[in-house]
Design brief:
8-stranded parallel β-barrel; 43% helix; 295 residues; alpha/beta; globular; TIM Barrel
Amino acid sequence: MGLNDITLWTAVITPMNSDSSVDYPSLEKVLRLQDEANNGILILGSTGEALNLDEDEKKDILNFTLGLGLRNPIMCGVGGVNMRETLNWVSYLETLKLDAYLMVTPMYAKPGTMGQYEWFKALMDRSTRPVMLYNVPGRTGGELSYKTVEMLRDHKNFWAIKEASGSPEKFAKYVSACSGKGKVFSGDDGLMPDYAPLGAYGLVSVAGNSWPKETNLFVKKCLNNTLGSDEKMWKNSCNSLFLASNPVPVKALMNATGVIKNNTMRLPLDARDLADVAPIMECDRMVKQWYANNN
């Protein structure tokens, strides 16, 4: 499938062994489930705990993923606050057969419009692949500037935006700022039904980890306005995956259902910050029953 055939990108987790090393057999299982569901794969994002992986580990994960011969596109997260280091990382990624990059606004520094513009332009100039810009102020501390989007929308590598501020009003403004020159994806699973009528092209998802085929169908139904009365169930189920900091809940669910071997994260994340997995397990039951009824 081509890049623009994908309406669901799953921000995949990084499964870990009990000693916090990367669990490659479980990672392969997760990746193949995504490929079977015809989902795009986003690796080394915040859901994949990329900030807690060293450079060698990230390179190993990339090479492992690309070595599986998956059919669907693969996008890699690009984040940082050091310009030279991030440019060097993009130069390395350019040596691999990736399909796109997800580039987040620099965290903690809270750059303004021009700082964001120069940062993204430098990275996009270094790239030969399509770039999805990422607005997630809850993690970075700052908003992606609408003006920055307007200044970058004619760049040859500008492709899309992932909008995860939680605001339909802001989502509509990013659609307007793109002026038809870029696609806007929901970065909030539970808001996909709200964003579809506003022009969402698709979803970059956490829920896709635990429910690959189910979330794919959910997105399709949002886009063709056929979700109907199941919207509440889906919103509740998606929201259950954020009862603690992501990816704590989704890893707990995937461990409980046998998709991954261990419910292990690296500090500062801790599995004990999710008090009870039972509500998520009930949502898991409902989502799978919904899929059985609708597929």
